[in-house]
Amino acid sequence: MTTTPVSPAPGQSGPDTPGPDTPGPDSPRRATRAAGLLPADPALRLASVLTLVNALGNGLYFPLGVLYFTRIVGLDATAVGIGLTVAGLTGVAAGVPAGRAADRWGARRVGALLWGGTGVATAAYALVDSYAGFLVAVVCATGLQMASRGVQGALYADVLPAATRVEARAYLRMLVNVGMGIGGVFGAVALQIDTEAAYVTVIVVNAVSFAGPALLLPRLPLAPHVAERASLDAGAPAAERWRAVRDLPFLAVTVLNSVLVVQYSLSEVGLPLWIVERTDAPRWTAALLMIVNCVLVALLQVRVARRASQVPSAVRAMGWAGLLLAASCAVYALSAGLSPVWAVVALTVGAVVQVFAEVLSAAGGWTLGYELADARAHGVYQGVFGAGMSAGMMAGPALVTVTAIAHGSVGWAALGVLFAVAGLAVAPAVRWARRDGAWRGEPA
Fold first, then answer.
1. In this structure, is the dihedral angle defined by the CA atoms of residues 56, 62, 68 and 71, taken in order, positive or negative?
2. Integer distance in angstroms from the first to the last C-alpha of the chain?
3. Considering only CA atoms, which of 264, 105, 125, 100 is closest in space to residue 206?
4. What pTM, to 2 d.p., does this model score?
5. What parts of the chain have a pLDDT lower than 70?
6. What is the largest CA-CA distance in the chain?
7. How far apart, in whole angstroms, are the C-alpha atoms of residue 39 and residue 45?
8. What span, in angstroms and rounded, lies between the C-alpha atoms of 32 and 19?
9. How far apart are CA 401 and CA 105, in angstroms?
10. What percentage of the chain exceeds 70 in pLDDT?
């Protein structure tokens, strides 16, 4: 268990404790209202700026990254896909060592190195003129970026107050959606221009969106509880600091979360293919569903996270997420064979249901990833949790393709059952983790 102060029982509020609908003094909602556009808390304010800048760069690059290597550099599309897979595997493997490095040398320092390295490697895309050069650049850039996910989790554990950490992460995720959406608009402009200069400009801007914020990461102020955690870490045997890789209950929760993470591949890969190959909906429906997702996540994520910031509510959120994902899969399956108008309606309804699942699973996953971790080794624990998410995102496209796209309604049903089982299985996995938590100083 983390060093979060003792809280009232779920659903109850003490005389000085905010209720579920009342933001506390450090709440991102209250802080944002007080400061205007950005939170008043200095750590969250700086993290917001860094997150928004990086999201703008990523959103700008996202629509045209693969097309640059195929259309401009002239690489084979299949070869590019294989290279991206190799790069992803490198990132998954690097997650845990990067987390341990964050525990040893500090998440701010390691995060800055990873972000800065990602920026340099991304800039190297502009120099690629062969497949070998592409492999080197993409393995470095993607590997470093994916390794940084767990370090970011440890970074938030260091700089954000424990009581509002999950809500703050929801606020940052909202900014990611806003930044990605705005960046995507300009990325579409670059696609329309369709010149090498336009592509290279986007690459350079995206590289700066990593390297620039990396210079500011060490300036993030540490939260007060970090000094206490440092004293705990100093007294922990070296073997205990690697315990995350042997913590079977935590690994079980990580695996179940990685299954739910496959949902992101529905939006990015599954639905565009399903719309074009299996429905009569117009092609622009894929863009419509992406916009619906970005807008609703931005509107809902903070509100949902506020209600899933304790372990019991997080477990319920994960269970509901699995069931809602199953429902969305069923609705997507129904869109085949409908008229164009009704197909768009069905797909939109499914996308809305999926958004609710997405914000629930994200909030629940953040809470469980922190609350089930050993506070003495947040870097390794968040590295393991982040590696699980990366693995789910990597496996997602292939899983969605061989189920829903290849087998239609039967495939959607299989995906739905997988999501529902994973979400409902979180509850017994968390009970196992809490029974096994005496070594963290928790009650058995």
1. negative
2. 12
3. 125
4. 0.73
5. 1-38, 223-245, 378, 436-444
6. 66
7. 5
8. 19
9. 41
10. 84
